[in-house]
Every structure is written in C-alpha cells, then in structure tokens.
Amino acid sequence: MILETAFFWVAVVAYAFATLLVTAALVFGRDWAARYSWWLTLAAFAAHTAWIVVRWRLSGHLPYVQTYEDIVMGTWVVTAAYVFVGWRWPKLRVAGIGALPFVLLSLGVAATMPEAVGPVTAPFKSIWLGVHVTFAWATYAAYTICASLGILELMKGRPSERHPDWLRRIPDEDVLQERTLKFVGYGFLVNSVMIASGAIWAHDLWGAYWSWDPVETWSLLTWLAYGFYLHAYFTLGWRKRRLAWIAVLALFGVLMSFWGVQFIPSSFHAFSRIGTEIGQVGRPK
Amino acid sequence: MKVRLLWSPKFAAVLIVAMLALGVVSFLVPQRSHPELTLYTQWAQENPTAARVARSVGADDVFASPVFLGLVALLELNLVACTLHRVRSLRDRVPRVPASAPVSAVRVDLPHVPEHLADLVSGRWSMWKVRSATEGQRRYLVLDRLDRARLGSLVMHVGLMLLILGGAVAALTRFTGSFALTEGQTLPDERSSYLGQPSEPTLGAAYSGALVRLDSLRFDYDQGLVTQVHAKMTFTQGDTTRSVQAAVNEPASFAGKSYLLIKGGHAVGLSVSGPSGQLIPDSIIRLAERTPGGYSDWVALPDGSRLTIRTRANGSSEALAVREPLRLQNPVVLFQVGDTGPTLTLRQGESGSLGGLTVAVSDVRLWNDFSVTGDRSLPLVYLAFGVILVGASVRFGFGRGRLGVLAETTGDGAAAWVWGSDQAQVAKVVDRLSALNESEAAKS
Q: Chain A residue closest to B379 (CA)?
C-alpha cells in the first residue's frame, strides 16, 4: 500500500514538473526545458507503470474496477500514446502541451478518491467489459493525441513571422494533419469496438444494448464528431485549421463521456457504485 | 429546406452539435431518468418554477424528449440519404485536384506537364481503378486498388443502416418486465406474474406461458462484497424441460426471453391469524428494505395497522451489522405491531402470539428480482456491429491502396509528385515519369 502510494505521488510530481517544463519550453523557447520535460515524462511513466504492477499484485486483477483505478489506468494509456509519438517523431514531443496537463489533472482527480484494493464485483465479471475498457482507454489515448497535435497545428497555422524558434522546428501543418488523421482513423476504429463491446456487456448485464443513458449518448456523439472529422477530410475536402479545430473541440465529448458523468452522476453506468451492493447489481427501473 | 441538404455532411454536423448541446443540458438540469430519483425530486421541490419549465420543454428527460429523438431521426435519415447518394456519385466520379501533394510525395522534375497522365499506367494496372482530372495546367491522376477504402467506408455505412434497422425492430418487438422469484417458487410467463406494468411488444406474442422455477440461489462474497450470484433455474414449456445456470452477466435464456439477475433479499414464509380467522394466509413475504442488521418490510393488517417484519443474523434479536447480508447465519425473524407495539422473535418452523395475533414462520429463504427482456433485433444488431467493425477495419486498418500523381508547372518547367501507400507502385510510376523525362530530353 505504501509502495503503491509512493509510486502514485512520484508519478504525479514528475508529471507536474514535466508539464511546467514543456510549458516553459513553448512560452520561453528554451530547448533544455523541452529536453528535461521529456526525461521527466519518461520517469513519471515508469513510476506510473510501477503503480499498475504493484496494484495488480495487491488486488490480483488488472486495476479497472474502481473509478480511481480506471482514471490511473486511462491516464497511463494516454501517456503511453504520447511516449510512442515522442519516440517515433521526436520533433513532436512538444505535443506534451496537450497530453501532460490532461494526464496531470486527471491524476489530480484520482488523488481525491483513493480506494483500497477490492475484489472484482459481480457486474464487472465479463470478458466483454475487459474488451470494452481496454478499447475505451485506447480511444481515450488516440483522441487526446489528436487534440494535442491539433493544438500544435493551430499554433503552426499562424503567420510564420510570429512563430517562435521551437515552433519553426516542429513539422509543417501538412505533416501534423497527416498524423492527426491517422490517429483519428485509429481512434475511430477502436472507438467502434469500444461501443460495440460495451453494448454487448450492457445487454448481458442490464438486458438492453442501448438505453440512451448519458454515457452511451455522449460516447455516440463523440464517435459521430470524429466521424464528421473524417467526412470533413475525405468528403468535404476540409484541411488544416478547420480540421484542427474539430480535432481539438471533439475532445470535449471524450471528456464528458469519461469524466463528466463521474462528476455529475446522471448515468445508469455510475461506475463508482456498480456492484457495491447487491441492490445495485442491476439497472434501476 | 433543399433536398440536397439531406445528404450533406454539414447538415450532419449541425445535428451532432445540436445533440451535444442537449447533452450539456442533461448535465445542468437533474434528469428524471437518474438512478437516484431523489436528486431530481429534491431539485424539483427546491426550484418548482424551474422544474415546471424544464418539464414543459422536456429538459428534465433530455434523451427521451421529442426534440432529441427528432434530431436522432433526422441524423438517421441523413445517414441513409448520404450513403445512397455516395454510392450513386462514386460511380465515374471525377476526382478533385488536390491543392498540394502530401509532404511525403516523391518529386520528379519534368520539362512540361504531360498531356495525358493516364498513359503512365496504361495496360499495367488491371487491378486498379484509374481516374484523372485537370484544372488549368494542373493534372491529377488517382489510382485506387480495388477501391478498398471506399469499399470499407461503404460496408461501414451499410452496418450503420443495419444498426438503425435493428433499433426499429427492437422498438417493435422488445419486451421488458420484471418478476420476483423466491427459492423453490414457480411462476408462469404470463402478464399476472410480472411486477408493475411490463412493456409489451407491438409485434409478436408477449408471453409464452412457460413455467419458470427458481431452484436455488447462491451469493459469492469477497471482503463483504458480492462477487457473483448463481441461480439454478428450470424452464418448462409443454414437454420440454430445461435446467439453466444463470449468473450476473450470464442471463438465463428460454423461449426468446432473457432472465437477468437484478437484486435479491430475504423472504419469509408466513401466516398470520387473528381471533376471527386467517388474516394473512400462507404466503411468502419478500423483505425488500435493506437495513444494517438484515432485511425489513411490513404487511398491512385488516384493521389498518402494520405488522413490521425484520430478519436478524445469528439468532440475535439485536440489530447486528451484517457484513454479508444475504448469508444470514441461523436467522431469526422479529415481528412488531406498529412502531411501538410488542415484539415477537421466531425461528424457522416456530409460531407465537403477538397482541392477539398468532404468527407462524414456515421458513426464511432467498428471493431475487429478475429483469425479463425479449428482443428479436439482437441477431441483426450483432450482425450490424460485425459489419461496422469489418468496414472500419478495411477503411482504416489496411490502408487506402491508393496512388496519386499530381503534375503542375513550376517556375522553371514542370514537376510531378507521386505518393501512395504502396512504395513499390510509387517507384514504378516514378520510373515511368523519369523515362518520360529522358525521352523528352533526347527529343529536344
């Protein structure tokens, strides 16, 4: 328990400094800040991974049952996606300006609701839930990266004489757009699997694959919003700033699907309460 | 409204934004569909005017409001129209000349823009669909291998239409109801067995008449939490009898209906007699209110008073905290007339007197609420999921299988840019362009 808490806070502190440094790198144009931000992110990611390993060992199952676990796992996947982007395209490490604050704030929320390890309760025992949650994390990560790249694209789209040095070094709008498009395509695909597997789970647990509950509705709207991004690119021929704005704004739907319903619980999903007692095994009428 | 608007992706965008806006409303106004209805009730009591206004415009039940459902219907219409329109327009569509080639494109310098770019690939690309377009001095050639991208996109849209069709079938054939069974009890699948008002299908029979029996119920615990519920059930219809094991996430299915475990508690087999005869004949009373010390409920006596019934664990008449409430050890049942009347404690098989009443407990057993659903759209919906995923995988997972060539004049002559997912094919076209370049140079 102490080890788990220690890894959690090491990760949070490292993410906090990495966020400060990437912001400093962008605002003051300091290369060293960007470099240290990257190394701190890797350190935070290592601590984050260690938290998962320790938690898994303590509970005997992948940490995905409680809201606290769900947030920490979800942010780990977002960081993993960012680390992949930064490793594959080093010039895009400044995309941390979108991903890192997001991870930090989400972990801040998790810090307010720590829960001791517990068993997997009856409603969570489903292979379809495993598929649903895994693909939800992948969706979350892909769309967060899209928004981060979208922010860079919007900054890059301003008149070039206003570009600071660091911005001149990152790839052109065309390249950013191509990469954003790839992440949107990937996100859209895994989002489809997430919705379909969630519907199958809901049918087995609640007897209905779709109930227009807020979580379902928000995830459908998010899927449609990214579907529109793809149509805007392929059918309407939209490019650059307009598309980048969609990539950034559509993240709002992701945030509402994942966290909005937790803060203002108006959903049958009510993740934090499912299965805490037998009276709540099922969906209330 | 122009008919063209119906198949416009921009119209779809407007609809999506409108739906998102309504989604935001659902977060600001407490919803009647909230699992904890008290949140809505409390808000409505504190803000009666706002609640009245919200009710009148459907803001307190956004996702069931006519406005939201109307937007969904329009979006579905848009999807169908869009897909049909795309299928029609894709045939022999003239491609749009792109503003620029992707940065990854290979550049080949040319003396001038070739008159017929399509000649570059004549006779060697039988598996590719070749289309070209011209815009002033800019020429564009696009080759799609088996048109995989569009095929995937089309399949995905067909899947979406199947899903919508599944939704319509569900709306017409769906049955939803719930009934409670205690261990050893049998109920027929008839209207009278269900609690409240079941939602019956518009098409098809609502009830099969099959006999549903709950043989036994078992709860697994870990650290005081229910980790699984096991129900052994028997279904009988005509000469067919089938035993089924059900659990949470693994509903029992019989005669087109699924039986899902929802919630459980304790039930008491009980009879109550007064001086004038049996007041409550042999019956099973389900104790639905969960308390820290067990389960509780009450039954109304003919004189208007209440007979409160409580279960207690471990033979104690005190309200002990029960960590695993459905695993009561040596249960006792407490009876009390009114809130302050005398009390009586009985074990299974015992009877006793209480304020002129004779109370007998035959047994204490478990009961469970089953949500019963019937949905004939399920195969169609699951097929639609599969088709959508196959379409999306082909569309995004396997690349576009596309090759593009853009040729235009530059400051000192002309240049062509070649790009595509298959680098071998890109190299082939680059070779052809280079050969063209060399032959032009030799001529000059």
A: A200
